[in-house]
Amino acid sequence: MADNKAQTLKIREFPVEENPEHTYLNAEKGIWSWLFTVDHKRIGLLYLFSITLFFFVGGLLALLLRTELLTPAQSIIDADTYNQIFTLHGAIMIFLFIIPSIPAALGNFFLPMMIGAKDVAFPRLNLASWWIYIFGALFALYSIITGAVDTGWTFYTPYSTQTGTSVVSMTFAVFILGFSSILTGINFIVTLHKLRSPGLSWSRMPLFLWSLYATAIIQILATPILAITVLLLAMERILGIGIFDPTMGGDPVLYQHFFWFYSHPAVYIMIVPAFGIISELISTFSRKTIFGYWAIALSSLAIAFIGFLVWGHHMFVSGQSELSSVVFSFLTFFVGVPTGIKIFNWVATMYKGSIDLKTPMLYALSFLFLFTIGGLTGIMIGALSVNVHLHDTYYIVAHFHYVMMGGTVIALLGGLHYWWPKMTGRMYNELWGRITCGIIFVSFNMTFLPQFIMGSQGMPRRYFNYVDQFQGLHQFSTIGSYILGLGFMIMLVYLVWSLFYGPKASSNPWKARSLEWMASSPPAHHNFEYTPVILHGPYDHHQPIREFHMGVAKEADEQTTEAERETT
Amino acid sequence: MNRIFEYLLPPQRSTVASEVDSLFTFINVTGFILFMGIMITILIFVIKYRRKSEDDVTPVITHNSILEVTWTVIPIILILIVFSWGFRGFLTLSTPPSNAYEINVTAAAWFWEFRYPDGGTTMNEVYVPVDRPVKFIMRSDDYLHSMYIPDFRVKMDVLPNRYTTAWFEATDTGQSLLFCAEYCGTGHSDMLATVHVLSGNDFEEWLETGLEVDEDMPLAELGEQTFTSAGCNACHTLDGTDRIGPSLAGLFGTDRELDDGSVVEADEDYLRRSLLDPQAEVTAGYPANMPSYAGRLNERQIDGLIAFIKELQDE
Amino acid sequence: MSTHHISTLSTLLSVAGALLALTFLTVAVTWFNIPEPFNVIVAIAIAIVKAAAVAMFFMNLYWDDRFNTIVFLLSILFLVIFVGITLLDTLFRDAGLPVY
Amino acid sequence: MGNHSVATGKKSHLQHHFVDEDQQFESSKFGMWIFLVTEVLMFGGLFVAYIIYRSWHPDLFYMAAQELDVALGATNTVVLIGSSLTIALAIRAIQLDKIKAGINYLVATIGLAATFMIIKYFEYMDKFGKGIYPGSAYSYDGIGHDMAVNFFSIYYMMTGLHGIHVVIGIGLIGWMTIKAKKGLIHSGYYTPVENTGLFWHLVDIIWIFLFPLLYLID
Q1: pLDDT digit string, tens, across residues A37-57
Q2: Residue D52 resides in a domain
Q3: Domain ranges of chain B
């Protein structure tokens, strides 16, 4: 990778410019300078805007579903519409929101900054990936207009090969979106390998980057299987090739293997980046070195790897061989170990820290609460005999919402508040931030705790109509979901408000130590006007902050002062 | 404590239920202890180590091997316990006793059909003896379905291309609900059946009499009974509102416009053809997904249904 | 670092020659009826040797950064995982083969 | 590891965020290798389907493979190996700044790739003539196995996806030829042609496996 000979670099301190005049936001003007930008920060914001849009669309659909479930049988929409809406809710939230959410929005913005690079390795590919994403979204929209899809986001055969809805165009949308995901993954891996600043060894990489690295690896290895799966599914409908459809000699369980070989690792594409954000938040707001750096970093990779061995735990009652169910169940539990290690490390990081309960930290603590529930209920449904009872019930629905929403979305919100001043140069209202976090935390539990109870009582999922005994819990859950929706609306309002009226943010409001905070807020067009040199780890809160401002002195720069150190 | 778990779970009405529930309880209790441990620790830390001033100095603690090994090993031990416990229950669930009473189950969009060893058939109702293992040998006519009886803690997908099996031994008499747990389209959430657990004598008696079609029952009344027992009500209403198929109210004698544009009168012959070969003449505006009832209904039941539909016309 | 490797003419030609010879070999072994499953094993073994030759000498992995080789082998590893665990299901289903 | 030397004067193809040409070349090639990983896994899905159906119906695969023409398959293997050689020679020529020879080798590669597609076309037409189509259009009854269509579905998916890659490869190599003619690639900057070469060799490798798996079942 590099020349092995140690080089002596002349370095000096580069103080951060407060209230910068030239930033990436005003480097170029006009809508075209945004839509066709190759600046990773602007692409990150394009993604942020898109995922927010789709999050609200998906959320509205969810509220519609919850409203329908206020009463058994029909309340406002009919069964077919209900089926289409829960399919769209799942497909939009997964393919258009949560998979690109943290990596493509926050990752794009901060990955190059955190390693002191000017951009990702392939900026044009990065832009292409966003356009492909938009193109895929348009395809999804097209399939909604031409008859929607009612298969569930899992597209299980043979229902998906026989239903009258526009499955083919939806599968092509998924195919295209997968491509976008792959390009982001390639970009991240190459950037992390090849573009790190001097001194930024693997052991000094922020944990957010380790988690993005693990995520990118999963994206590379799993997404192609999704591509071939949906391609086969589309061919099944177009040509009737009969790999998956039993009426043509195919095997529907084989489809489930194909699907989950992607989709199980995909849940780690969704959650692993969240782990990274939480590591940053807990260390920064405890102002303390992270506990067990390597344990957290390597457990991300371990989760990524084990995640590929456990897909069959979605299929314990699918008719796969009992032998494979047993093997899958056994392997499944080993995802729990590295996940547990992370949680314990985060808690240990807070020990003897200097804990400041700012909004991002409140989200981090909410994450610990909700994600631990999500994880422990995961152990529950990994157990074979209990899974037989709980599979395909609301217990599963509650479990994955606790992991995906209580985990990923909460971490995303934490990260969004944490990096908001850096991205926009403005501070949001702290009080409203904390209130909203409280509202979301409480209403989230109101929405999904009852679903655990319904599930263990035997309420199957994807039910338009239900047995009367569940009505009370359903109504409680629906009311919770309304408050949850309200919480997100409040957040949207105060964040947008801060863009215009928020006070100007300093370059490092949280006194964090990782490299992105050493740039001005908002950052300059090329992030750093110098090549940063990294002397300390990203969590070395005991080191003076000026030692984090080191960079390579320009050759013409005569002021090369005291700090002249050797680095490899 | 017990009350909580009684609330959380459906009643235990099969032999495996207690085994499954004990693991459910174990994981919940251990999980709760772990969860509370973590949350209380966090709470203590947050209160005790609250930031006092902007100049707080924190100690550099990078790791602690003993602690880290501990919190790696203890979870491993716990998950091994949970795995083997779950495995044991799964072995029970997936090995039906050889003397089990076998019932053939066919799932189709959107009803359940049960065939008993001596040739009788019921739809959306299944009668089983208490304290005797019962094995379902299941197959689907179309999509994936899943046979789920919460009270018995059994669930198994029903596939179109091969047989899957599930078994249970009910422990007390009464009724339990059977759900379809694998999403299968429009009528998925209405694809329910009732499990009647009868005592040994009652079951024998039911086999003698219950399966026989009551020759004395008036045709229309038999039709009305068949309308629910055969699952027609999953798709057709009697009050004029549309569901998946057209409502049957006032249908008899009207002209039906078919999806190929032709028009037929809904007379007795048409109704019979619709039952036995539903795809041949599909009413315009409705999906062509009604299953064929050929071989599922006997002659008297078909006549009964026709009589019942005719009667709806008169009212 | 010699990643700008320029292959010699003789390397390229001899690799191509070997590939053609192996192609002939893989067809030729089908003329003798090797019993199952050895015929498949022989055919795949020859294919692996050919693929390795292409990867090492045409795609320059032999001279390249070792990490690229690891990356490439990683794809094979995950494919093996996919096939291996799926076969654990398909080969061990009680009911045997799917009925048409 | 990254930015060791401070960027001095910028050279023609160096993008602003790379420190030097070597870093840029290494990054591109590394990116290409990762992309090849996704290609391997995507084809891999089809290989998995192949392996599972072959394990279920070994007799079918034997019977159906008799319909394929080993001679044509072998010819195509030779053609693709030849094209791999010519593109390797093209890269070598460009590395040595023998642009003219490089262009000739690239054109030869396109010629061989086209030959491959033409042979494939005749193979497909021969099958279609007999009614051997993928999926429900299948109407050939010369194979006494009721799952016969299944083998050909897999056959068409595998060779079809491979064929699409050959066509994409032809496009890429054509583009490289134009670039070379315009003098845009030379010993100082040949990254695109190197990556095209990697892509093309992968297409060859996949065929190396398809050939014995589909044609040589005995």
Answers
A1: 999 999 999 999 999 999 999
A2: no
A3: 2-41+63-94, 101-209, 219-314
**pLDDT of residue D1 exceeding 50:** no
Taking an 8 Å cut-off on Cβ atoms, the answer to whether C71 and D147 are in contact is no
Q: In Å, how far from its chain's centre is CA A148?
A: 26
Is residue A461 pLDDT above 70, yes or no?
A: yes
Poorest-pLDDT segment among A17-21, B190-194, B310-314, D127-131? B310-314
Q: At what angle do helices D148-181 and D21-56 cross, to 10 degrees?
A: 170
Is residue B109 within 8 A of residue B184, CB to CB? The reply is yes
For CA atoms A511, A514, A518, A523, give the dihedral sign.
negative
One-letter identity of residue A39: D
Residues 6+ apart with CB under 8 A from A42: A24, A34
- CATH annotation of B219-314: 1.10.760.10
Lowest pLDDT segment from A357-371, A477-491, C20-34, D197-211: C20-34
Pick the more confident residue, B238 or B153.
B153
Instruction: Give the whole-angstrom CA distance, residue D40 versus residue D162.
Output: 11
Integer angstrom CA distances of residue A176 from A35, A121, A128, A508, D42: 19, 22, 12, 39, 14
- Cβ within 8 Å, pair A327-C90: no
User: Is C89's Cβ below 8 Å from some Cβ in B?
Assistant: no
What's the CA gap between D191 and D193, in Å, rounded? 6
Mutation target to probe the A interface, by most A beta carbons within 10 A, among D5, D16, D17, D195 is: D17
Specify whether the CB–CB gap between A378 and A268 falls below 8 A: no
Q: Left (φ > 0), alpha (ψ -120 to 50) or beta: where does A550 sit?
A: beta
Which one is predicted more confidently, C39 or A431? Answer: A431
| More confident position, B279 or A279 | A279
Helix-then-strand count for chain A, H and E: 18, 4
What is the residue-averaged pLDDT of chain A?
91
- The alpha-carbon gap from A323 to the nearest alpha carbon of chain D, in Å, equals 17
- CB-based touch B/C (3+ pairs, under 8 A): yes
The three-state (H, E, C) secondary structure of A420-454, written as one string? HHHHHCECCCHHHHHHHHHHHHHHHHHHHHHHHHH
Q: Which helix (H) or strand (E) holds A139?
A: helix A123-145
Chain B residues near residue C99 by CB distance under 8 angstroms: 161-162
What's the topology of domain B101-209? Immunoglobulin-like (2.60.40)
Residue D184 lies in a domain: yes
ipTM: 0.89
CB contact under 8 A, A376 and B35: yes
Quick check: do D and B touch, 3+ CB pairs under 8 A? no
Whether A28 has a pLDDT exceeding 90, the answer reads no
Average pLDDT of the segment spanning B168-186: 94
